[in-house]
What does this fold into?
Amino acid sequence: VADSLMVGRLGVVPLAGATFAGNFYYILLLFGIGVSYAITPLVAATDPKRKSKLLLFLQNGFLLNLILAILLFAIGWGSSTFMVYFGQEREVVEAARPYLRFLRSFNGLPDFSSVCRRAFRYSESHDRLSHCKCAECCIELSSHIRKNGISNARA
It folds into this structure.
């Protein structure tokens, strides 16, 4: 919303370009956050007394997020050349390219690393029991599906 308010003052075409580039970015962001959310159940299921294992998950999570951010940056940068094929006017595409390349693509690492930091804060919070129960339920459900197949899985 804030970027739309700021870019909207420049005109209709820059606003359309920022919105078009934002849609590209949000698809990449949702994929990246979905992958980086995998650390939360691992941290929640770990005994809080085993700090070395928690720190290992945090370290590996940050490494995963760094690799993911670099990969999605490259995809975001490269996809800006294919924006022409989505039926937008040439002026809108030209306005969207720098927005996607510079403003949006560099946000991947802070966005994904915040998910990793949040998972580590969960491990130290007092509301840890609900996260452990959720992680135990997910682990139990996945082992049940592996043994019996997906058609026999019941809630």
The helical segments are 2-8, 12-36, 39-44, 51-79, 90-104, 108-124, 128-148. The chain has a mean pLDDT of 75. The chain is about 75% helix and 0% strand.
